[in-house]
Amino acid sequence: MFVTLESSEVFVPPGLKIPNEKTWWYTKMRLHIRWFYITGEHADDEGYISSEMYLMSQVNQLLELHMSKNITIRQIYLVSPSYTNSSGVWEMDEFSEILVGTEPNSKNDQEAYIFVLKNGTRYVDSLLSTKEQDIQDIKQLVTL
User: Fold this and answer.
1) 17 falls in which pLDDT band (50, 70, 90)?
2) Reported confidence tier of residue 19, pLDDT bands at 50, 70, 90
3) Do residues 52 and 41 touch, judged by C-beta distance below 8 A?
4) How far apart are CA 75 and CA 106, in angstroms?
5) What is the pTM of this model?
6) Euclidean distance between CA atoms 86 and 64, whole angstroms
7) Cα(83)–Cα(10) distance, rounded to whole angstroms?
8) What is the Cα–Cα distance from 2 to 36, expressed in whole angstroms?
9) Range list of H helices, the chain
């Protein structure tokens, strides 16, 4: 999740301000979890198209954006901590597919995600540290 501070809010004059929108110079994260950097195009009701970037931490948010009629996703990047990518540092990689499956022996059908990068590398996001070959009922969620 992203954290904003009042001191980082940007003043936008009333004539330029978009309703229900706030602008920030920066955000921060307290949790060392993966997140997504998404580029896309937004078409408003009058047909004006603007290029936008989205920062999200939840797969369900990404799915909502992917299904939106007004937004065309161009690229999705996985921003992953070192414990996910085994590199020792944070990395940002473009990916082409998200798969979802069920953790074995989990209560409440705990989900695990598999992120397939453009270069073919696969990262597993599992709260129970399940290996990919042990994830059950794998299905495709998103493909680009």
Assistant:
1) confident
2) confident
3) yes
4) 33
5) 0.87
6) 29
7) 34
8) 12
9) 59-67, 82-85
For residue 67, count other CB atoms closer than 10 A to its CB: 9
Residues in the chain: 144
Q: Using alpha carbons only, how large is the chain's radius of gyration in Å?
A: 17
User: 3-class DSSP state for residue 132?
Assistant: helix
Token pair for 72 = 């065309």
Which two structure tokens, joined as six digits, stand for 37?
């950097």
The residue to which tokens 């042990």 are assigned: 134
Whether residue 1 is predicted with pLDDT greater than 80 in this model: the reply is no
Give the tens place of pLDDT for each residue, 77-124: 999 999 999 999 999 999 999 999 999 988 888 999 999 999 999 999
Residue 85, SS3 per DSSP: helix
What burial class does residue 135 get, using C-beta atoms within 10 Å of its C-beta: 0-12 exposed, 13-18 middle, 19+ buried? buried
Cβ atoms of 124 and 100 within 8 Å: the answer is: no
Cβ contact 27:53 at 8 Å: no
Distance CA 58, CA 42 (A): 20
Tokens for 61, please give them. 């948010």
